[in-house]
Write a structure and sequence with these properties.
Length: 286
């Protein structure tokens, strides 16, 4: 099923994310976790993609397994930086053969010292055009409520986002944020630019206080005082942080759904216990 159709016919739903292993030895463990999450019946599940194609075949295999094993539509991520242009068509053919109907088209993070291959895509918008020209796929793209770190301003980033959407994007998925006010402001700003497609906000349940400061710094995500107080108080206690992080994420999700957002994406990170706790907390809502 195309995710766009799903978004147009829901009164509110959740999706979960998993990432593929780096090595074949770990595939079955990751697959088992993904299927456990899929058994919670999210509206769809996304499977990330290693920059530079490191997990190319694992992304596809995991996405296929989620769809065939549990009947949950998969959103396969695909990055294009460092990928020779000729390879993209083959990847799309493989995706189609595997029954994948939804792709999140991304540029990918540029590795240090990155030199573009001749003729390779520079921006995700070019990948979006390529996938649309191939035909048949529902295409999502990334967006950044606080602006992308490489762009000189958030306002300029939104203008580039408009170009990307105009290349044929069907829906957007956001980077994580911890203050829903930032998301609502971003939505007003992009709607004013004429971006009318659905936006799926991404919420990260923070269960490990030690990692989050670094992740936020790298991704340009701000931590509001309210969340920082939680980190200060519970960050050093794994069980308390686990519970507080899930409850904070649930509060964000309830607020987003109440505001009329059709779907919230949860960065569940291969953790069935986290996905199950969120599902359980929201059992009378979704
Ligand atoms: C929901 C989500 C899922 C993600 N999943 C993955 C994943 O699975 N694997 C992975 O490796 N990474 C993933 N990422 C990270 C992503 O690859 C990085 O953030 C990457 O740096 C940018 O990718 P993009 O597709 O947003 O790039 P683009 O849309 O191409 O933008 C990249 C930068 O270029 C600028 N730009 C765009 N167009 C132009 C132009 N015409 N001229 C000049 N500048 C321009 C933008 O403002 C931005 O700063 C994900 C991010 C999000 C938000």
């Amino acid at each position: 099923m195309h995710i766009l159709n799903l978004l147009q016919n829901t009164r509110g739903c959740l999706s979960f994310e998993v990432f593929p292993p780096k090595k074949a030895d770990n595939f079955s463990t990751v697959e088992a976790a993904a299927l456990e999450i899929a058994a919670l019946r999210p509206a769809f599940m996304s499977v990330t993609y290693g920059a530079g194609g490191a997990t190319d075949s694992f992304t596809l295999a995991l996405a296929r397994s989620i769809q065939q094993g549990c009947g949950v539509p998969a959103l396969a991520h695909m990055t294009c930086c460092g990928v020779p242009r000729a390879e993209i068509g083959q990847r799309l053919t493989d995706m189609r053969a595997a029954g994948i109907e939804n792709i999140l088209a991304l540029r990918g993070d540029l590795p240090q010292g990155y030199v573009s291959a001749p003729g390779a895509f520079r921006y995700a918008a070019e990948l979006v055009r390529e996938i649309k020209a191939y035909g048949g796929f529902c295409v999502g793209a990334a967006c950044y409520p606080e602006g992308h770190t490489e762009c000189r301003s958030a306002a300029q980033d939104r203008l580039y986002l408009k170009e990307k959407v105009d290349a044929g994007v069907d829906f957007l998925a956001t980077q994580m944020f911890f203050d829903n006010g930032l998301l609502y402001k971003f939505l007003y700003q992009i709607r004013a630019l004429g971006i009318a497609i659905p936006v799926i906000p991404g919420v990260m349940p923070v269960t490990n206080g030690a990692q989050i400061e670094r992740i936020c710094k790298l991704s340009g995500t701000s931590l509001p005082a309210r969340f920082r107080a939680i980190l200060d108080k519970y960050g050093a206690s794994p069980a308390a942080m686990h519970q507080a992080g899930i409850l904070y994420a649930c509060e964000q999700i309830v607020d987003l759904l109440a505001a009329g957002i059709p779907a919230v994406h949860v960065y569940s990170m291969n953790k069935p216990a986290v996905a199950a706790a969120i599902r359980s907390n929201l059992r009378d809502i979704l």
